[in-house]
Each structure stands twice: as structure tokens, then as C-alpha cells.
Write a structure and sequence with these properties.
Rossmann fold; alpha/beta; 2 domains; six-stranded mixed sheet
Length: 660
């Protein structure tokens, strides 16, 4: 078990010799050597005998051989802190049960019987087995040792609590794993022998995904394979592991189009118990069912090896807000546009008929996304795009590139265009406040003279008052015109990268829960799927430009001087930190460790990662006061910082525990 809460699980489907427990035990032993680094190894239903032994289950010889095979595996597990779960028929008080045996370090920990027996179509389990209902003996004797037995067993090692159910148990209206999860199990195991028929694999996958999500747990499933008897059916060797509604790993199986095989197959992944613990704590309704548990559960301890240096066997998304699969990304972008458009349309309906909608259009990413959403909303609801009034407000930092992009995009979208040069208003503000912008005495200057002087200032010059006055005057101009659509995104809210009562404020903000890394993809997606070639070209140019508020003067050759990412760090890092801090509740140590394992768009050394993470936490805590009064806007994903919904935090909270 990894110190950051990762438990490695393998679900394996071995080659089976039907009716030959000794040979099956040898196959399992061989695989255990292969999966020596796994904390938990799960095998299919009745894996010691073969699920298809049929009336041979009535033979004492097979039952005795199965128990001998079980002891063979118990002995082979000695010296290894690893939970091994195998399927075995067990005779108890004159009845035969289809069971899962849990083994750890040379010890048989307990045996869990199956509760629901399929007895329809190709399944005839009630012919040989009895369904467990809780009335069974609490212990049975195996090899002269008392062994816990029953449907009330859970297995615990530190934070890992394991519950076990068998095949049909999952397919019932109320799977036993649901009760086990309420009782504390965060890893659920299913030993199965599900036949492979057309369409069944996707149904099976949906069951595993949904149960892992419903239980807020890891769910591992190991299915019997094609070396079972094929007299009437074929078993597909389908193995998979899901975590809270997401399949993290799956094996090959019969019917997946790959070449046929006769050996073993498996799925292995590290599941994240800390993430599951965070999700259970924050979803209060999960605890509400505990009072209705029908039974108490016995917890049996087992040991897992502490493995701090083990390489993580799990995909870490460098852009967790942006799906890597192109089809999934397209679906995500389309859905977000629908949510943004629906939210804005409802707010617009509350306004007087034909009242214009004002947007400050800078030619940057965020205002472009808001403008595109507004244009698509108008098209969708039958309103003319001319109802949108796009206002460009060039200031002392505006470059020709962004201004031209803004003008061209507004023309292409058919919105009403207007330009208001704010520099004169800003100059008057500097003079009224007796402020010297970037150290320049502007008391007797005109706008053009000041502009030329500003361009000559050093590139590393700083002046927050100079920046804030421009941002607030832009908002003053917009607010003086009418209903204003905000443009700031989730990442900027997290970092406080906005001017209070400046670009921080609006009447409605469609970008409020869209992170910067996703904004870029949404802008490109809009160009690729919703507009003609001319608009597509403009949107891609905007998406490829340097991210800047353009509040500092350009360079002498007219290029953008002020790069946001050069000031506060790469947005792909901040969005990575934001996701794992808010969505998963990870500690700074774990977030940094994960970042060190991740392949971002460019390499970052450990010092850069640590420095950017410190910047994130300092800015996140220091800027809650801005988030406390953000405008309304639609939540589009699992992370939101709305003070009215997802995130409530005191504005004067101390970040010391996180920074330390």
C-alpha cells in the first residue's frame, strides 16, 4: 500500500482445468508470482474447481480436492502481505455454498458465501448450492482451524476495508456490496462467471461502473474465461476495476476483436482510497443509510506492505478538466455550451424585451468564449445576434493583434460593434489621484505622449494601481451601458487574477466554472463545429495567442509585454492543482507528488512545481474575498467556487497548514 493512499488491485482470470483443483491451484500460484507487487489479487468464481463442473459438485471427491487446493494456495501465500481471494465450493452443515476465500500471508482469513443464486436460462446454481441468508454458522472448521464464515465479513488493513460479493449478487436490485459500503467497505470485490453473449459486456461494465459510483468505492471484477467448459456457453475472461463511477482498467476478453488466446488475462490498477474518503466525507447523504443496516459486520484484519517507492500504476491526466479522448472531449464541449447557453437564456428572459446584452470584447480567450456562447444562444432561441453589443475598450496595454481579432470576430458573428478608447478616462484618473503611472509624471501629458513614454519603460516595471484603474474604468463603461455579461473563468477566480469591482464583476458570468485549460479547447471546439471557415480561423488564432490581461504597455515593437503565465505560473499547473485540491481534497504533498509523476505539455523541474504550488495556495487563500461576491453563473463541471453552492470559506483563513 502506497503512503498516499493507493492500493494496487489485480483482477485476474487464470487458465482453468474443469474439475481439477490441484491444477487450478498451481495456475493461481503461478499468477501470484506474476502479481507480486499487487496488494489485492482477485480470481473468478469457483476458480479452484471451474464454474462449469455441474453435477460434479455433488461429488465429495471434488469438494475435498477443492479444499486441498485452497490449503495449497494458503501455504504458497506465506511470507507475502497480500490479500488473495479465490472461488471455492465449501460444505457447511450438510449444505454446499459457492464461496470466496480470503487469504493473507499464509492464513485463511475468512470465507464469504454467495447470497443470490441464478437459476434461469443457462444458469442452474440452485441445483448444487444453497443461497446464504445470514443464518449460517459464524465459524467453520478448515484444516482443524476455526475460520470466520458468513455474509457479514469485511477485511481491513489500515484505511483499506474490503467487502466481497459473488457474481449474481451484483445483478440483483439491492446488491450486498451496497450494504458493505455503508458499513465502511471502500474496496468491493466480485468473483464472477458471467457468460459472454452479444451486448452483455457493455451491460456488465455499466453495472460495475454504476455500483462503484453508487457506493463511492473501488470495485474489482474478475470473470471466468474461455477455458471453462464450452458445452453450451462461452465465458469471456472479462476483468475490470472501477473507482467511483469510472473504469480505470480492464482486460481483454472474448468478443473484443483481439486474437484468440488460451492463457490468463488480467486488469491491474492503483485505486485511490484518499480520494474515495474525501468523496464520502463531502457527500453527507452517504452516511444517512447507516442507521438502516440489517446487520453488524465483523472486521478481520490483514496486512499490506508499505511501499513508498512503488511506481504508480494509474493514468494521471495532465489536464484533468480536459478529456484526452477526442470523442469524449467533443461531447464535453458540446454539453458545456448547452449549459452555458441555457443559463444565459433564462437570465436574458428576465430582461425587458430586446434589451441589449453588453460584452467587453478584448480579443482574449475568456471574452471570446463568452461572446461565442452569447451568439450561439441567440441563434438557438431565435434572437438576432445584433442584440449583443460587443465593446472593445483599448487601453495603454492593448496590442493591434488582439484588437484586430476582437473586431474581426464581432463582424463575423454579426454582433453590434462599438469601440471606446478608455485611455483619456484613465489619464484623468491618474491625474486626479496624483498617481505617476509606472513612475511617469503624467500631470501635464496628453494620452499619446503618455502612451509613448509607457512603451519605453522597462519590461519588468510594475504598477498595480495603473493596472486596476484600467480594469475598473472598463467595468464602469460597461456597467453604465446596461446588462453586462462577465467573462472571468474558474482559474482566475481561484487565483484572484482579477480586479475587485473591475473585471471581477458583471450581471451574469457564463464562464464562472470553466477552467482556463478548458476555455482554450472550448474556443477551438466552437470554431471547428459551430461556425464557418472564416470564424474558425479567427477562433484558432485567439486560442493560440499569449494569455494576457493587456494592462501593461506593449513592447516597443508592438508585442504583448504582460504574460499572465510568466507572472503566476503555467495555467496547466494551476488547473491541475485546483482540480486535485477542490475535487479530490488532496494534501499539498500528494498534489506535488502527483505533479512530479505527470507528463505535462512541457517538462517542469521539481523546484518549479513546488514554487507554483506555493503560489497557488497563497493566492487561493488570499483571494477568497473576491469569490465571496462573484456574480451568478452556471456550474458546468464537478468543480465550482460559487459561494452560494460548492465552496464556502472564510475570507481571512490562514494557509499555514497547507504551505507548511
Amino acid at each position: 500500500m502506497h503512503p498516499h493512499g493507493y492500493v494496487r488491485i489485480t483482477a485476474a482470470s487464470p487458465r482453468v482445468h474443469v474439475g481439477a483443483p490441484r491444477k487450478n491451484a498451481a495456475e493461481i500460484e503461478e499468477l501470484l508470482q506474476q502479481y507480486g507487487e499487487s496488494d489485492i489479487v482477485l480470481f473468478p468464481e469457483l476458480s479452484l474447481t471451474g464454474y462449469t463442473a455441474a453435477d460434479l459438485f455433488g461429488q465429495q471427491q471434488l469438494i475435498d480436492a477443492a479444499m486441498a487446493g485452497l490449503q495449497q494456495i494458503v501455504a504458497a501465500s506465506a511470507g507475502r502481505d497480500q490479500l488473495v481471494v479465490v472461488g471455492v465450493p465449501v460444505s457447511v452443515a450438510g449444505s454446499l455454498y459457492n464461496c470466496a476465500a480470503a487469504i493473507d500471508n499464509g492464513q485463511l482469513l475468512g470465507i464469504v458465501p454467495k447470497q443470490f443464486l441464478p437459476n434461469y436460462k443457462e444458469f442452474y446454481e440452485a441445483r448444487w448450492f444453497r443461497a446464504a441468508d445470514g443464518s449460517e454458522p459464524a465459524t467453520i472448521t478448515v484444516d482443524n482451524q476455526p475460520i470466520p464464515f458468513g455474509i457479514d465479513l469485511l477485511f481491513r488493513s489500515g484505511d483499506a476495508v474490503v467487502g466481497i460479493e459473488i457474481c449474481e449478487d451484483l445483478w440483483t436490485p439491492n446488491p450486498p456490496s451496497g450494504l458493505m459500503a455503508v458499513a465502511g467497505a471502500n474496496i468491493l470485490l466480485n468473483l464472477s462467471a458471467s457468460t459472454e453473449t452479444v451486448g452483455k459486456a457493455s451491460w456488465r461494465t455499466d453495472l460495475v461502473k454504476s455500483q462503484s459510483g453508487r457506493c463511492i468505492a473501488a470495485y474489482a471484477y474478475a470473470g471466468a474465461g474461455p477455458t471453462e467448459s464450452t458445452t453450451d456457453v462461452v465465458f469471456g475472461a472479462h476483468c475490470m476495476i472501477a473507482e467511483n463511477g469510472v473504469v480505470l482498467s480492464h482486460s481483454r476478453r472474448v468478443g473484443d476483436g483481439q486474437p484468440a488466446w488460451q492463457g490468463a488475462t488480467s486488469a491491474t490498477v492503483d485505486v485511490d482510497l484518499q480520494k474515495l474518503g474525501h468523496d464520502r466525507r463531502t457527500i453527507g447523504s452517504f452516511d444517512d443509510a447507516r442507521g438502516s443496516l440489517p446487520r453488524d459486520y465483523r472486521q478481520i484484519d490483514f496486512s499490506l506492505t508499505h511501499t513508498p517507492d512503488r511506481e504508480l500504476q494509474r493514468d494521471i491526466a495532465p489536464r484533468p478538466f480536459v478529456p484526452s479522448d477526442p470523442n469524449t472531449l467533443a461531447d464535453r464541449c458540446s454539453e458545456i455550451f448547452e449549459i452555458q447557453s441555457a443559463g444565459l437564456a433564462q437570465r436574458i428572459r428576465q430582461l425587458p424585451e430586446n434589451m441589449p446584452l453588453f460584452i467587453g470584447v478584448s480579443g482574449g480567450l475568456d471574452s471570446t468564449l463568452a461572446l461565442v456562447v452569447a451568439a450561439k444562444m441567440c441563434q438557438r432561441y431565435g434572437w438576432p445576434t445584433s442584440r449583443i453589443h460587443g465593446i472593445t475598450m483599448p487601453g495603454f496595454g492593448t496590442t493591434d493583434q488582439t484588437r484586430e481579432s476582437a473586431d474581426r470576430l464581432m463582424q463575423q458573428l454579426g454582433v453590434t460593434r462599438e469601440t471606446i478608447d478608455i485611455r483619456q478616462l484613465c489619464l484623468q484618473a491618474f491625474q486626479s489621484l496624483q498617481h505617476q503611472p509606472l513612475g511617469i509624471d503624467a500631470e501635464k501629458m496628453d494620452v499619446e505622449t503618455l502612451q509613448q513614454q509607457l512603451i519605453k519603460t522597462p519590461n519588468d516595471a510594475k504598477d498595480l494601481v495603473f493596472e486596476n484603474i484600467q480594469a475598473r474604468i472598463r467595468t464602469f463603461v460597461l456597467m453604465s451601458r446596461g446588462f453586462v455579461l462577465g467573462t472571468g473563468d474558474l482559474s482566475e477566480q481561484a487565483l484572484g487574477w482579477s480586479t475587485y469591482n473591475g473585471d471581477h464583476m458583471s450581471m451574469y458570468n457564463v464562464n464562472t466554472s470553466v477552467p482556463k485549460t478548458l476555455v482554450r479547447f472550448l474556443v477551438r471546439f466552437a470554431g471547428d463545429h459551430h461556425f464557418d471557415e472564416s470564424v474558425r480561423t479567427t477562433l484558432h488564432q485567439i486560442a493560440d495567442a499569449v494569455i494576457s490581461p493587456e494592462l501593461m504597455p506593449p513592447t516597443e515593437d508592438g508585442e504583448i509585454r504582460q504574460s499572465t503565465e510568466a507572472t503566476i505560473g503555467a495555467y496547466e499547473l494551476h488547473d491541475f492543482f485546483l482540480f486535485h485540491f477542490i475535487r479530490n481534497g488532496y494534501s499539498p504533498e500528494k498534489i506535488l507528488w502527483l505533479a512530479q509523476q505527470t507528463n505535462f505539455s512541457q517538462p517542469y523541474d521539481d523546484a518549479t512545481l513546488a514554487e507554483t504550488l506555493q503560489t497557488f495556495f497563497k493566492r487561493f487563500f488570499a483571494n477568497q474575498f473576491k469569490r465571496t461576491c462573484v456574480p451568478d453563473g452556471p456550474k458546468v463541471g464537478s468543480v465550482s467556487l460559487s459561494p452560494r453552492g460548492d465552496w464556502r470559506m472564510p475570507s481571512d483563513a490562514d494557509p499555514d497548514a497547507w504551505l507548511q
